[in-house]
Every structure is written in C-alpha cells, then in structure tokens.
C-alpha cells in the first residue's frame, strides 16, 4: 500500500509559493535591477524545485514494515518493522496542534505523516499491523483549511497579474 502527499495540499502549497515569488523577477526588471534578475529567477526556480521535491514524499506499507521515501537529498527517509513499534506518542506543536510519533523498542520516535491522501486508511492500516489504539488520531490540518489557503493564493495570483502588468507596461525600461 502506498500513500502520497494529498494533491490538495501539494497544489495549494505550490500555488502559494508561486503567488509569493512570481512578481519578483518582473519587479527586478521594473526597478532596473537587471544584475539581480538572474539571481532572483534562480532563487525562485530553485525554491520551487525544492518544495516540489519535498512534497513528493511517499509512505509505503507492506507486510513487514512502514517506510518513508523522500526525494529530497537532505531529508532522510526511514523504515520501521511493525514488530519494532511499541507505542504512539502525541506531542503538541508550537502552534497548539497535535502530531504523533511512532515509538520503537529502541526508544526512537518517527513522525507519523499526516498530510497524505487517505490518512484515515493509513491510520487503520497502522492500527491493524501494530494493535495500537489510534481511534483519536486526526490529521493536523483539516481539508477546509487548505481550501481557504488555496482561495487566498488564487486571489494573490490575481494581484500578481496586476503587478506584473504594471511592471511591464508602466515602468519597464529597456536594457542598453
């Protein structure tokens, strides 16, 4: 069984990043900062690629283990045998949310991925394999929160379009 990051979450976060960074190269042109244009474009493209890779994580469940596979080179994946999981530990986040760690016999904790599509199915599968009581486990953020963020990201993109239009029509100075 395989679980990936929810498409709603992936699209919302990528659109938010795009909305926050899209006007930057155009503003560099409009403010005659041509020397910084390539640095700006490189930063925007690099950031987008890093976020895209970070949102490519997969959770794989089989008969023996649960595994997190990451495509981000600096992010280390992990794998835990079902027989090594002994507890589920809730932990409060700095913003007041609740996340869960799968604890092993050796005392190590592995963050339970909560932004996957089919989270309730993932929780039921883990509960079936480990016999842990997971009935109170809920996702950190509800889908409606991402719909609100998606809505405001789209509004921000509309303003970006206006900013880009203004930069190109009113303030663009040709390079010499």
Notes on the structure:
It is a single chain. By secondary structure, the protein is of the alpha+beta class. It has one domain (2-169). The chain is elongated, with a radius of gyration of 21 Å. It has helices at 7-21, 23-30, 34-54, 119-130, 143-169; strands at 2-4, 58-61, 65-69, 78-81, 85-92, 98-104, 109-111. A hairpin with a 4-residue loop joins strand 6 (98-104) and strand 7.
Summarize the helices and strands and which ones pair or pack.
Layout: E1 2-4, H1 7-21, H2 23-30, H3 34-54, E2 58-61, E3 65-69, E4 78-81, E5 85-92, E6 98-104, E7 109-111, H4 119-130, H5 143-169
Antiparallel strand pairs: 1-2, 2-3, 3-4, 5-6, 6-7
Helix pairs in contact: 1-3, 1-5, 2-3, 2-5
Quick summary:
With 176 residues, the protein is an alpha+beta fold. It has helices at residues 7-21, 23-30, 34-54, 119-130, 143-169, and strands at 2-4, 58-61, 65-69, 78-81, 85-92, 98-104, 109-111. The strands form two sheets. The chain has a four-stranded antiparallel sheet, with helices on one face. The protein has a three-stranded antiparallel sheet with strand order 5-6-7, with no helix packed on it.
The number of strands is: 7
Q: Main beta sheet, described? A: 4 strands, antiparallel
Overall mean pLDDT score? 87
H/I helix tally: 5
Broad shape: elongated
Main-sheet strand order equals 1-2-3-4
Radius of gyration over all CA atoms, rounded: 21 Å
Structural class: alpha+beta
Helix and strand element order: EHHHEEEEEEHH
The total tally of domains equals 1
Task: Please estimate the helix content.
Answer: 40-55%
**Percent strand:** 15-25%
